[in-house]
Amino acid sequence: LCFCRVLRFWPLSFLWSKLSTCEQLGHRLQHLQVISSNKKAQNQDQLMRKANIFVSLLIDVALGIVLMSWLYRKNRIGHLADTLIPVADHVAEELQDLLQWLMGAPAGLKMNRALDQVLGRFFLYHIHLWISYIHLLSPFIEMILWYVGLSACLGLTVALCILSDIIALLTFHIYCFYVYGARLYCLKIYGLSSLWRLFRGKKWNVLRQRVDSCSYDLDQLFIGTLLFTILLFLLPTTALYYLVFTLLRLLVVIVQGLIHLLVDLIDSLPLYSLILRLCRSYRLAAGVKFRVLEQQDGKPLRLLMQINPLSYGGVVQTYRLPTYSCYPRDSWASLCKKLFLGELIYPWKHKGDKQN
After folding, report:
1. Total domains present in the chain
2. Fewest CB within 10 angstroms: 188, 255, 311, 313, which?
3. Residues 124, 219: one domain?
4. pLDDT band at 66 (very low <50, low <70, confident <90, very high)
5. Tens of pLDDT along 193-244?
């Protein structure tokens, strides 16, 4: 299944690489491939890795079955479906109130009236479309949740990944707002930086990837001055919308990040090694230590050798299982730079990205 050729074609390849549920299923399929392999373990590390994967998979499935039994008891699926639509409507109403506040005089700030009205109505129209879409799906929500709940038998991590994907789908309008605001803000930032180089008699050399000197005529300087003034006075309105929607987007990403941290904890925790350290600590030794029992002149020295067990932190560090880690690992400086320049922050990792 992991190397099926059908998954290499678009759009299945896109969904398989972007949905956290598909990533987790592929990760668990690789674990099953390691467990079911007929190749014998060559050393102690490979044997412990197989045992840790087996115990982790077993506990994950057991927790998923417990969750599934809890969901299908006392019609909790129906109650969850009845709660989901009002919550989505409440979030949409709060966003409408937020946009109405931004279209006025937010925090006493004087915004550009024309651009403020255009952006506010544009986002209000998208919220209207999103509410219509949610109410169109409302008759099928309970059936969808009923079938989604059955996936918990594959493991608690799969259920958590499905929850993360559901959150991403339910907050897709927030993601769209963030993309619109970020693209518009980024366009103005790069436009202002380019026009600022024009005032200083500089220009960006695309071929050499550097800033070179350049002479401009009077018409170019006049048009550049007009464009710079327009972009500068429109920037506060755009920046305010970008700031608000970026904060909402970061809130959603933080919730999804906490879910993925829990999934990574379940996937990577060496449970078999920890149980072995708790019950038979001498099986995981960090070395030996000697204690003097008897030391007298003319008699042989008597020593007591004891096994020094590996600490629990050392067990986790030594036998920790690798995870797929679909979230980006940018440094704080890189993240702040992207936020300031309006570059998009994706909740997944692209192939070939450099990780700090």
Report:
1. 2
2. 313
3. yes
4. very high
5. 888 888 777 877 777 778 777 877 888 888 888 888 888 898 889 999 999 8
Let me know whether 140 and 216 are in one domain.
Answer: yes
Closest CA to 348 of 12, 26, 14: 14
Q: Could you tell me where the DSSP H helices lie in the chain?
A: 12-18, 20-35, 44-71, 76-102, 113-137, 141-150, 156-170, 172-199, 218-268, 271-279, 312-319, 332-341
Instruction: Identify the domain containing residue 38 by its residue range.
Output: 17-268
Confidence of residue 353 (pLDDT cuts 50, 70, 90): very low
DSSP at 296:
-
Q: 284 and 202 in one domain?
A: no
**2-16, 55-69, 330-344: least confident range:** 2-16
Question: 134, 156, 135: which is closest to 71 by C-alpha?
Answer: 156
Q: Are both 255 and 282 inside the same structural domain?
A: no
3 within domain boundaries: no
Asked if the structure places residue 343 within a domain, the reply is: no
pLDDT band at 65 (very low <50, low <70, confident <90, very high): very high
Q: Is residue 286 part of a domain?
A: yes
DSSP state of 329: -
Does the pLDDT of residue 184 top 60, yes or no? Answer: yes
224 vs 299: CA distance, rounded Å? 98
**Domain check: are 114 and 135 in the same one?**
yes
d(C-alpha 241, C-alpha 236), whole Å: 9
Residues 232, 291 contacting (CB under 8 angstroms): no
Judgement on whether residues 57 and 152 belong to the same structural domain of the protein: yes
Query: How far, in Å, CA of 335 to CA of 144, rounded?
Result: 36
The burial class, CB within 10 Å (0-12 / 13-18 / 19+), for 7 is: middle
More confident residue, 303 or 347: 303
Look at 44-58, 138-152, 277-291 and tell me which has the smallest mean pLDDT: 277-291
Residue 349 lies in a domain: no
Mean pLDDT rounded to a whole number for the chain: 81
Q: Residue 175: which of 41, 315, 348, 306 has the closest Cα?
A: 348
The region that residue 327 occupies, defined by phi over 0 for left and psi between -120 and 50 for alpha, beta otherwise, is: beta
In this structure, are 216 and 103 located in the same domain?
A: yes
Residues 103 and 239 in one domain: yes
